[in-house]
Design goal:
The protein has helices spanning about 25-50, 60-95, 100-130, 135-175. The protein has about 180 residues and is mainly alpha-helical. It has a single domain (about 15-175), classed as Up-down Bundle (Four Helix Bundle (Hemerythrin (Met), subunit A)). Helix 1 (about 25-50) packs antiparallel against helix 2. It is elongated and about 60 Å long. About 25% of the residues are buried. Bound molecules: fe (ii) ion (2 copies). One fe (ii) ion binds near residues 34, 79, 83 and 162.
Length: about 180
């Protein structure tokens, strides 16, 4: 994200966030949700890679993959809804210089949602291929891996950009303001 959008970033370097007097529960919770999303996404990729590397069988993939993917995508979707409807409007009201940055983050949510929908479609194809056992399993796994790889790439960038906007704003204005 450009410096003029993340205009508080230079004033509040990430290495000092946690020691700042205004770093409170909300900032901590925000960072915690982001780190759970990163690790839930990585878990899904790990299990799919284990199948691609022939470390586990199709049945094991099916069992391990469905609950992990569901919980990751639900968590992600829920988090973005709360941001769009509750927190981003509050930040825009709090500081007009942040409006353009939050507009960009909201546009990211839209892109990420499209990528999430594609991930669900490819997950369905993968599960169908695993149940049919008609030889399409490996190809379907590769397609799914590409799709979720794209989703996670978008998400990583988004989470980092959002932290650069949200955390300095919380430190600058204080969490009570929200
Ligand atoms: Fe977000
Ligand atoms: Fe977020």
């Amino acid at each position: 994200m450009a410096d003029d959008l993340a205009y508080l970033r230079a004033l509040y370097p990430a290495s000092d966030w946690r020691s700042h007097a205004n770093f409170g529960e909300l900032a901590n919770f925000w960072m915690h949700v982001h780190s759970s999303l990163r690790s839930e996404g990585a878990d899904v990729v790990r299990i799919v890679d284990a199948y691609r590397g022939r470390e586990i069988e199709g049945l094991h993939l099916q069992q391990a993959f469905v609950p992990r993917l569901n919980s990751f995508l639900q968590h992600l979707d829920q988090h973005h809804r709360i941001e769009d409807h509750v927190y981003f409007p509050k930040f825009r009201q709090l500081d007009a210089r942040l409006i353009a940055g939050f507009d960009l983050l909201e546009a990211d949510h839209e892109l990420i949602h499209q990528s999430l929908v594609a991930t669900v479609e490819h997950a369905r194809e993968l599960l169908a291929a695993l149940s049919q056992r008609a030889g399409g399993e490996r190809q379907a796994t590769d397609r799914f891996a590409d799709t979720i790889g794209h989703l996670l790439m978008l998400l990583q960038q988004h989470l980092a950009d959002e932290e650069d906007l949200v955390i300095p704003a919380l430190l600058e204005h204080g969490e009570q303001a929200l």
